[in-house]
Sequence to fold (538 residues):
Amino acid sequence: MNDKPLETELLGVTLKNPVIAASGTFGFGREYAELFDVSRLGGICGKGLTLDGGAGNRGVRVTETPAGMLNSIGLENPGVARFVAEEAPFMRSLGCAVIANLGGHSVSDYIEGARLLNDADIDILELNISCPNVRAGSMAFGLSPGSAADVTRRVKEVARHPLMVKLTPNAPDPVEVALACEQAGADALSLVNTFLGMAIDVDKKRPVFDNVYAGLSGPAVMPLALRIVHQAAKRVKIPVVGMGGISCARDALCFLMAGARAVQVGSMNFANPRAMLDIIDGLARYCEENHLENIREIRGIV
Amino acid sequence: MAVIVQNTEIAGGIYRMWLAHAPQGNAGQFIMLRIPGALDPFLGRPISLFDSAGDELTLLYQVKGRGTAAFAGLPAGAPAEVQGPYGNGFPLVPGDAVVIGGGIGAAPLHLLVKQLRAAEPNRRVEVHLGFRGEAYAIEAFRAYADSVRVDIGGVVTDGVDFAQTAAYYACGPSPMLRAAAKAAGETGARLYVSLEKHMACGVGACLGCTCQTANGRKRVCRDGPVFDFREVADER
Fold:
């Protein structure tokens, strides 16, 4: 038997296992590193960065929904320069793969941010063209194949790290966007970011969020996300990292069987900080029970 | 895993939950309480500590939405997932203390009064509690406080003398905190307020509860929930 049944290669990086903390749900690892051994994770995607940083949105930022949650954080972050100086070295010390997530309000923001991140000790650059919570940019770039391909191409020209583009499920045809990003030079794709949703405060007769619409995540969206990952993974040749509502090892297996090379776990970290460890243990058990040399044997079998 | 010893309604929509095999915490800290394994309700709920002794915790909570409604239905003997305690808690400032609570905001102040008394048996601890309707938990405060004034339906801060040489502590609805801050601002009193925000993680990762302070953005769950009122003037 292989003694590393969960070891997964992603863009030249060897992950201990295919379980990665999703951007925006894990900070830069500092808080959860106090609660459990984060070196057991496959990797960590840091909080979404913007070139100059920002305070995020005003008003209510999170609210629970049936088996899920809506968020409207709005990319509160310290900016790329401070990430490079302070957060990336800390993430590197945690002992798992380090992925920086870069958002932007304009193409030039993305290019400049990517340039600055060339100086950071990270393994992969995740290009966030899918955050629904900022007024200008971000998800706007991910809604159409043309704009997604354009920003992917421009960032790929300057970035020295492998480039993984994070896609939105809110595009009219996410698979067309996936194909366009592949064509434009993306090395991998991660999907899906949150689904655009809404909450209304009935007593106050107004939207719960100042930004009106917000991103839905959590177990409620899992089947929706799985469908998109399945369709995209069947069409593109580059690696796909699947996510959306994963709460247990069986959910993670669904995404792997649908064609994902690795998975990201997001909202579930909030509900149960140890959820990813349970998922990793569950995947290892699955390999053992099913006599798999490596988890890749089930990749895309559905 | 913590176990519910008792979970009873003590006033309209107000429940007291007594937990065994729970972690110990300080006044002003909170736990994330969750029904083990549940995906709906999904997230833990931040609940402050009404009392903490050894491995037993007592919580007071108000049924406000689906999460707390689900808690209210939990029977004695049921397991409960307790994460934490999290947050900075109240500073136990030496000397006399004036404690002001509004509604369910009284919950963390009970453990505060108990710990103030334990730290300095001879200090004077004055408690003012305001309720919209029915009052609750008053006797529990009387066990540790020198005086407990209860205000029903009025403005609880109107009855507080902010010119004393004492540390002031407040937890309650925003209008109450604003009134306390205004009064403390006029007299120069030292006032600590405990803020409440929607939280997803409780540990400082999701940034769902950040607030603007005089010292930049801070996370209510991790850098708070207790702040010097001057630091969070923009938030109240």
